[in-house]
Amino acid sequence: MPHTSTSRSEPARRPAPDRGRSLLGPALELIRTNRAPTRSTLTAALDVTRATAGAVAAELAALGLVTVDAHPVGSGRGRPSHRLAVNPDGPVVLAAQVHADGLSVALAGLGGTLGEAVYHPLPADTADPERVLTAVAEAGAELIRADRRRCLGAGLALPHPVREPEGTALAALHFDWPGGTPVARLFGEAMAAQALGARDRTPLPTAVGNDANLAALAEHRHGAGRDARHLLLVTSGHVGVGGALVVDGHLHTGSAGLALEVGHLTVDPLGRPCPCGNRGCLNVETDAGALFAAAGREPDPVLPLLDQARELARSADRDAQVRAAVDGVVDRLGLGLAGLANILNPDRIVLGGLHLDLLAAAPERLRETVTRHSLWGRCDQVPVVPAGLRHGGLAGAAELAWQPYLTDPQAVVEG
């Protein structure tokens, strides 16, 4: 990119000293999302001088977060520029997720890429939140100790609403936890009790959030929701259905973090009973259990339910009974999505978990149902697309753990 003069006639460009720390966060976000792969593009995106951009990139490199190629490269046009990238040997965070029938943990670098997810069964007494959260912490600590990279924090995705800012769990229907269980505090204490490596943050900062909210955030930043202004995510995990809305890059969580409990939208008033007390909720009409029941099959109680349900949906073209079950569940899912589209008017609907496989098994049927029952769908069809991330909840938990360092990258040297 041609060099631009920084004379007094350009008031928009300000010198580095007073802006250095405030520019680190925006610069890191540009680099980690590959919107600034070179120092030249970083200069243009931040609207600063080449010297300022170079100083910012050098500071992020000194913090161990990014790499700056020593030798500039060029494409034949303009001045060669240094490549910028997330440091593959830089720090990580722990991403954890509690499912209705197990828990999973993974380490995540800065660029949104997860390491291998490790699945564990839940402890026998799931009604005890401390026992469940301790099991998560122990599984996470095992991963952290086995990795040579420094761990900066831990994020946890939970399959039930989490009140903000207190970090308390409400209506933990899958586990029968008491209302108002202080999950944020309990998870922090469980992680603080673990023995970690000498280089890791102590105590390890922790954060918790609803799994669907976090998956939506990750899809918007790194997956199928990129560039959507009003992104609606609907997903079915191991049990139940969750949803979330991202508006202009920010989660719509309501007054206390409890908005968009889409699983309790009624799609069949005479349908299956839901733990919330109603019947025919999306939560119980379009999840893994609903698909198995419609197909007249019994899942293996030892294996993860979601994996079995996804495999069952993929067999629809080979089994007429499964095909009928898939079509019935898809019809109810379409009704739910149409109702949500009428209320929220999203510009993109992303489906995750089992719903991703239902979309693949009956794409035209699902889209036609949404269009037929949605006022906006009939006049301006809403794209319905599969999620782009394999483990959206874990990816979102990683985003949650990384957030303090995205806001202030120099925080990596503290603690």
From TrEMBL:
One of its GO terms (molecular function) is kinase activity. The keyword S-adenosyl-L-methionine does not apply. Residues 10-21 have a biased composition (Basic and acidic residues). Keywords: Kinase, Transferase. Residues 1-22 are annotated as: Disordered. Belongs to the ROK (NagC/XylR) family. This is Putative NBD/HSP70 family sugar kinase. It comes from Kitasatospora viridis. The lineage of its organism: Bacteria, Bacillati, Actinomycetota, Actinomycetes, Kitasatosporales.
